Amino acid sequence: MSPIVELKDVRKSFGSLEILKGVTFAVNKGEVAAIIGQSGSGKSTALRCMDRLETIQGGSMSICGHKLEDEKIDLKALRRDVGIVFQSYNLFPHLTVAENVMLAPRLVKGIKRAAARQIAEAVITKVGLREKMESYPEQLSGGQQQRVAIARSLAMEPKLMLFDEVTSALDPQLTGEVLRVMEQLAADGMTMILVTHEMGFARKVADRVIYMKDGKVHEMGPPAILKKPSTPELAAFISEAAEH
Amino acid sequence: MTYEFDFPAVMAYWPLLLEGIWTTLRLTFFCTVFGILIGAICAIIRTGGPAWARWMVGLYVEFIRNTPLLIQAYFLIFGIASMGVRLPILAGAVIALTVNIGAYTTEIVRAGIESINRGQLEAAECLGLSRFQTYIHVIIRPALERVYPALSSQYVLMMLASSILSSVGVEELFGISNRIQSDTYRNFEVFVVLGVLYLILAIVVRAGFSLLGLALFPRRRKLGTPL
Amino acid sequence: MNWTFIVSLLWGLWGTVVLSGLTFLFGGIFGFIIAIARISPVPLISKATAVYIEFMQGLPLLVLMGLCFYGPGIFGYDSLTPLQAATFALTIYASAYLGEIWRGCLQSVAKPQWEAAECLGLTRWQRMRTIILPQALRIATPPTVGFMVQIIKNTSIASLVVGYAELSYNAKVINNSTFQPFLYFGIAALMYFAICYPLSVQSRALERKLNVANR
Predict the structure, then answer these.
(1) Going by CATH, does the domain composed of C3-214 fall within 3.90.230.10?
(2) Interatomic CA distance for residues C27 and C25, integer angstroms
(3) Residue A227 phi/psi, 5° resolution?
(4) C and A in touch (3+ CB pairs within 8 angstroms)
(5) Which of A90, B27, C7, C121 could bond B123 through an S-S bridge, CB–CB 3.0 to 4.6 Å?
(6) CA-to-CA distance for C203 and C208, rounded, in angstroms?
(7) For position C128, what pLDDT does the model report?
(8) How is chain B split into domains, by residue range?
(9) Hey, how many other C-beta atoms are within 10 angstroms of the C-beta on B52?
(10) Residues 6+ away with beta carbon under 8 Å from A92
(11) A10-34, pLDDT tens digit by residue?
(12) What is the C-alpha to C-alpha distance for residues A142 and A85, in angstroms, rounded to an integer?
């Protein structure tokens, strides 16, 4: 069975600055992959390319069967298969939690309001925020807002979920509630790729850890590599991360 | 002081004053509706349209904001008449006032649009919303909610400025008061009465916009905080 | 296109400039007084000033003009000339708006500055003069230049009610005899544009520079 995500020698530049210098890895259906690395290593850029928020200049990238190296692709179909959660949640402040989650199913899939509300209710309950359905984002804590953001993406029933440092902007005591939701998602069989600094989470939940450095995959393997890295750079990175 | 005030003489004309108030309110209503429409469309063009269209809107806005309403009204209303087009007086007034307020509205709505966080546009894009859907639901709706107080102030000011259209024959409150002045020669009293009436109108119109805002923006109604 | 008419328009433009200058002068002086009064620690003064500002901002300028034109005669003074009445009305109008603008600028000089000045043991007036005002002046320049544009545009209203011969008045008179509205009102509009646009641009440029400096 072919991998749901397959990157082969992906290159990406911003103007004259090359950020991705040949990234290669694959993720299978149902797997959870954690991408770690210093800031500037290109990990967020690689993730954003997967949902076509950036275009690639070289190599090939196959996401859920869509070939992202092509100039023209069916963006709508791609975004239907891929869900992404951002570091800054990006909830719509003028809508309630329920309306935030219902918006895309209603507008993109044409689902009627009543049915959309049921979908929203189910998915908001899943992230544990049913009692906040009629609240506005500004009334929620950071962790709650991030869980709503996850619910908002889940409501579209994606095949792949991308997480871009989703706990980095949260107070430490709020990261737990978000990580628990993500753990549950993984247990339910969702294919997930996360860019993260949470080593503990990666060790516990990921099937594969990808360490990126200077725009390339430097080391890759099962979570065990976090305990026993093969390369000195990864070892240095881990010990530095442990100090914080 | 040898002058004897005679307010009752002026107040006897209250049916006329009421007529004038009604015309002012009608003017305000139509110009608000069309003004916001034009302003929103121009603001959208200004923030995302092709270069030539952006340039044209820019020219329109700069020209209106740097010339007096009076000259704009003279230009449009006498101009249209000189072309042989017979336009009802009120229609001409609505056109002139709308063209004027549209430019100011454009700038206000534009500020609102530009204040929308880029991250939300990305989120909408990644959820699969089309450009058009994103514009309406993620940009315009919150932008309008955000700039609504500024818009309301602007439109109350427009209501006060509508008095200028008396110069082209519109019988709104100020214009109709000319009749009272020529009848009674009580110019000062008339102006005092006008002053009081406009102050009341300003309060009423402002309150009207407030209530409208609460009806249109549930978030504002429930939370009471600005967006 | 008749040259006499163009000359008439230019004279009107001069009338506009004169009225604008007088308004800015007197409106500025009173506006400053109002701004200071508005932030006075004496509640009666600041409240009364606030009411005055609200009042003046809620009246159409035309009504103000009428009151200023016919008022003096009523109260036993000599009638004012059109220029005097227009200046009177526009001064009241401008002082209310400038007062508000400048109040905002005074208050936006960061609170720590006020507190630091207080800690230095200066009297209230010394604080104002040496620390707050210079900074407030910088902040106030862009919106003040912007408001100048409003003053110039509003002088057009002096052509009604009081009949002062500025640009709009002369243009209307010309139109009454030539019936070429697009031409002569168009030229008048361009003349207004020619003096207002540079001020608008300058105001925006000053604002940008200010924002950069504040970072």
Answers:
(1) no
(2) 6
(3) -85, -40
(4) no
(5) A90
(6) 9
(7) 72
(8) 12-223
(9) 8
(10) A99, A100, A103, A137, B120, B123, B124, B137, B138, B142
(11) 999 998 899 999 999 999 999 999 9
(12) 13
Q: Does B12-223 carry CATH code 2.60.40.790?
A: no
Q: Which residue has the tokens 């007197």?
A: C26
CA distance B106 to chain C (A): 16
Percentage helix, strand, coil for chain A under 3-state DSSP, each rounded to 5 = 40, 25, 35
- Closest CB from C67, C75, C149 relative to B66: C149
From the list B3, B71, B195, which residue is nearest C185 (CB)? B71
Q: State in Å, rounded, how far the first CA of chain C is from the last one.
A: 53
Q: Which chains are adjacent to chain C, needing at least 3 Cβ pairs under 8 Å?
A: B
- Given the DSSP bridges, would you call strands A216-221 and A208-213 parallel, antiparallel or unpaired? antiparallel
Q: Extract the tokens encoding C112.
A: 């720590």
Rounded to two decimals, the pTM is: 0.86
- Give the residue carrying structure tokens 């243009």: C171
Kindly report the length of chain A. 244
- Searching chain B, which residue's CA lies closest to the CA of residue A77? B128
HSE value, Cβ hemisphere, 13 Å, CA-based, for C120: 15
Alpha carbons A111 and A107: distance in angstroms, whole number: 7
Is residue C187 within 8 Å of C126, Cβ to Cβ?
Answer: no
Pick from C159, C186, C19, C149: nearest CA to B168: C159
Task: Indicate the DSSP class of residue B135.
Answer: I
Closest CA to C118 of C130, C104, C103, C106: C130
Burial of residue C187, with CB atoms counted within 10 A of its CB: 0-12 exposed, 13-18 middle, 19 or more buried: middle
Q: Are A225 and A209 in contact (CB under 8 A)?
A: yes
CA B73 to chain centre: 14
Give chain A positions within 8 Å (CB) of B145.
94
State the DSSP H helix or E strand holding residue A13, giving kind and residue range, or none if neither.
strand A5-14
ipTM, two decimals, is 0.88
Give me the residue from A51, A93, A153 closest to B142, CB to CB: A93
CA pair distance C196, B65, nearest whole angstrom: 9
Query: Which of B151, B145, B193 lies closest to B173, judged by CA?
Result: B193
Per residue, the 3-state secondary structure of C128-175, as one string, reads HHHHHHHHHHHHHHHHHHHHHHHHHHHHHHHHCCCCCCCHHHHHHHHH
Asked if C182's CB is within 8 angstroms of B82's CB, the reply is yes
Q: Report the 10 Å Cβ neighbour count for A20.
A: 27
* Tokens found for residue C168: 């709009």
